[in-house]
Specification:
Shape: elongated
Strand content: 25-35%
Number of helices: 1
Length: about 110
């Protein structure tokens, strides 16, 4: 068994050292030996709602403001309950499915935990 860490991108166990880097031969991901702790810190990203409550995958939230759907005449109304959210990276940090509209990306500042 190797004492090298698994790849943070694909969890492959076939990593190897290349100077001051670790390299994954399966996905070609490279990371520094010092960056192993930085990757763990990055995974603990915190997303909070408009009231400051911590959000997690699978939570239910309620929309607190009318939101226009870009490229459409649809509007997500205040009080719309969204179930089973998924947190993602980016500007719109909540990925969800809204009844009557479909797949959406929401900003956490416009929702509150239900």
């Amino acid at each position: 068994m190797s004492a090298l860490p698994n790849c943070p991108a694909c969890q492959s166990e076939f990593t190897y050292e290349d100077g001051s880097l670790y390299v994954c031969p399966e996905c070609a991901h490279e990371w520094s030996k010092d960056g192993a702790a930085a990757v763990e810190a990055e995974e603990t990203r915190v997303v909070r709602d408009a009231n400051g409550n911590l959000l997690q995958d699978g939570d239910s939230v309620t929309v607190i403001k009318d939101l226009k759907v870009k490229g459409s005449s649809l509007v997500v109304k205040v009080g719309t309950k969204v179930k089973n959210i998924r947190l993602v990276d980016g500007d719109h940090d909540i990925d969800c499915k809204i009844d009557g509209i479909g797949q959406m990306g929401l900003k956490s500042e416009f929702v509150k935990k239900a």
